Structures are given as structure tokens and as C-alpha cells.
Amino acid sequence: MEKVVLTGNNLDLEQLVAVARGHVQAEIDEKAIADVNKSRQYVEEIVEEERVVYGINTGFGSLSRVSISKEDSTQLQENIIRTHASGFGDPLPEDEVRAIMLIRINSLLKGVSGIRLSTIELLLDMLNKNVVPFIPEKGSLGASGDLAPLAHMVLPMLGLGKAYYDGELLQGKEAMQKAGLEPIDLAAKEGLALINGTTVLTATGALALYDSINLSKLADIAGAMTVESARGIIDAFWEELHTIRPHEGSLETAKNLRNLLEGSTYVTHTAELRVQDAYTLRCMPQVHGASKDTIEYVKKKVEIELNSATDNPIITHDGMVISGGNFHGELMAQPFDFLAIATSELGNISERRIERLVNTTLSGMPSFLVKHPGLNSGFMITQYAAAALASENKTLSHPASVDSITSCENQEDFVSMGNWASRKVREVVKNVYRILATEIMIAAQAIDFRMEMEDNKFELGKGTKVAYDAIREAVDFIEQDSNIEIYDELEKAQEVLTSGKLLEAVEKAVEL
Description:
Elements: E1 3-6, H1 13-20, E2 25-28, H2 30-49, H3 73-84, E3 88-91, H4 94-108, H5 117-128, E4 131-133, E5 136-138, H6 147-154, E6 162-165, E7 168-171, H7 172-178, H8 190-195, H9 199-229, H10 239-243, H11 248-260, H12 279-282, H13 284-305, E8 314-315, E9 321-322, H14 330-358, H15 360-363, H16 380-396, H17 418-453, H18 462-474, H19 486-498, H20 501-509
Parallel strand pairs: 1-2
Antiparallel strand pairs: 3-5, 4-6, 6-7, 8-9
Helix pairs in contact: 1-4, 3-6, 4-5, 4-9, 9-11, 9-13, 9-14, 9-17, 11-13, 13-14, 14-16, 14-17, 16-17, 17-19, 18-20
């Protein structure tokens, strides 16, 4: 992807990731400029005529009852940035901040926020030159939008706050100077236009969504490898079984498993070795499929939000000024709560498959998949660690969107907590990557034991063979505890997943 052209209407998830993580450059489509300029003209007319309009010549929130003079209208906008930047905690990671900047630019290009084109262009220049504002992750209620974190985004534009440049944390003014950029003074309405919206929670949740899409495929790969190590029954993945209960995610998962296991002679059929497999093997299409359906739903909601105006008030294309609630995060808080549940379930079922692999009474292989168990503990505690992460995810999957707290003298009396919903799902994603890396590493160990037990007379599937080879490039068979430090091996396995190497290799071999 060479460049992302922003119109306010066509930004998708893949483009967002390309800019946020791949540092692809972005530019403004010329067709969007006219609407931006027209919207700005309406604001200037309101200021000149001294018509009372919220956020232009009034205070904010419950202070909307206070009128602001024409002479103070620009100071009002700087004040809102200085006082609203009241976040706390660790800084948001670079990719999330870059996603925030891109989404905010795209939203402002819809031409209903009354901001100057030059102000949007400055934010775009910061993005393209990788001036990354320091934004503490905590402090947003998700309505009226992500006020505190977005105010931190704006501070460097004014020569205030802090920002990273070339990876170094600097004072905002210095970071701008090193990038060859000049700070600005905000004009009427601009401070509010920049900070009132769902941009932060959407950015964090959107990147977690992208990772969840990949995790849903990795879960199929991990599960297929475990099926082979257990000589599981492939019949449960037959297409006809799923066409009579045709949920899209279930159909997709069953197809993925068939593709991954194509050509495998390790898999069995009903009553060949056993009549039925345990649920964690047999019901993968139904469980993974439910998560896939939720992920697809969330993707649709995210891509609507990426191209939405979440400012308040909105200046219509014919000059009307309307105060509404487009800043409210509930429309995204609920989907991100659903996404946390869906992604957690991929980790939960994986952890149970790990238990089947390391438990000698279930696997028929040595305890904890190591030679000479007792002297060696093998993969014993990797299952504990995976179980700890799975349990943590259960707590993180408690919905944030059912909570609320009043703010702003009870004017803003029902909020979404969408920022917490998005940050929770980010943590769930991290945990599930580790759980799946653990399963894939252990499944490769189990496959090696199975090969030895069966005198190498069977063949792995078309997709699982590629996955096995990819993990074996990073992690060797573990003969005994004294040869390794298990944390290091887990880190190597996880890097194969998080880097995309394993998934990319498998997708070249089979359709997923």
C-alpha cells in the first residue's frame, strides 16, 4: 500500500493498520477540501455576528450557560485543551496514537466540524512525520467523547505538552521544531472540534479487532495441530454437518480445519479409534465460529465509526448548527465488550486443549510431554500460565458498557465507559496471543511424540505441516528441562505468531 487517501468516507480497517503500524503516508483528497472550507466559513460568520452557539461563544458542558465574548473566543479554545488534558497512566503505544490521529483527520474531513483546513493539515503533517503526542491511557468516560486523551493529542500542536520524535520523548514544542513544524493558535470552535469524539476508544479497539481477526485464524491452526497430535476425528468438520446449521463463522471454521488437515493421515474417522472426541476438538467450528461471527459484526461497526463525524455541535452543509450526541461512545463500547468475550473464548478453549495435550490420562503420551517426567517437568507450568491468562480474560470480559457515572454537574449524566471497553479488549488480545503460542508450541511437541510412537508412518496435513515447520524454525523439540529456559522458548513461539510469520506461511499454503 503506497498511500492512503482520506475523504472522510472511505477509510477501512486495513488502511488504518497500514498507517498506524506500517507508517504508510496519508494525504487529503482534494474533493474534501471544499466542504471543510465551507464549514469553517459558517463558524466565522457565527463569530462575527455574535450568534449564541454552543462551544463557539459559550462555555462547555454545564458551562454552556456562560456567554463568551468575540474577543475571548480563541482563548476559549486554548483553555479547553490546557484544562481537559488531565489524563493519567502509561502512555498509549505509538500505533494507537497514530491510529487516533488518522481517525480524527478523517472525521474532520467530513466538513461538519467548522475547523480550518490548515489545522487539519498540521495534524496530518505530524502523522506523516511521526510526531507522536504523549497521551496517558486513562481518563476518558467515552462521552463527551475521549476528551482528556484527545486534549493531550492537541497539546503539541500548540507547542505544549509532550511528544515522541524519532522515538525520543520531548517537550511538544521541541518535537514539533525537530520535525520542521510550527505550532499554531487555535481559532473559534477548533479546540472542541479536535477533542470531542470517540476517536481514542475507536483507535484502540480497531487495532485490537485487527489482531482478533488474525487470532481467530491462528486458533484454527492451533486446534488443527492438536487434532492431529490426538489423532482426532475429522468427521466433525464435514461441510454437510454445518450447512444444516449454517452460521457463517461455523461454516468458515469447519472449512479452515478441513483445508488445514487436507492430506493428513494422522486424523481418523468415527469409531476408527474412538466414537467421539471431546468438545474442545469436536466443537471447534461452533465455538471458534461464534467468535468469528462476533468479530465480523464488530468489524462492520468499526468501519462505520472510522468514517463518522463524532463532534458536537455539528454544522450541516447548509449552515445549521445542531447539538446532539454523536460523541457518545455507547455505539462502540458495546461492540468492544462483545469483542472481548469473543476473543476470550478463543483463549479459553485453547487452554482446555493445552490441558488435553499435557495430561497423560487424556493424551496417552508422557506426562507434560517430556521424556522422563519427574526428573523433568516439561510443559507442566506452561498450562498453569495459560490458565492464569484465560482466567484473567474472564474478568476483563466483564462489560464496561453497563457501567456509567455522572459528570459535568449532572449535565453529562450517562456515559459509555467505551475507552475502558477498548483497553480491556487490547489486554485480552495480548493474553490470547500467549495462550495460542503456548498451544502451538506444545502441539508441535506432541506431534513429535506421536511421530515417534507411530514410527513416522503418517503424514501431517497440508496446512498443519507448514505451521509445524514454522514453529520448529523458532523452537526445537525439548528433550529435557536442563536444556532450556521455558520462558525464552515461549517468547520465541509468541514472536512467530505476533510477527505474522506463521500465519503468512500457512495462508500461502491453504485458504483461510
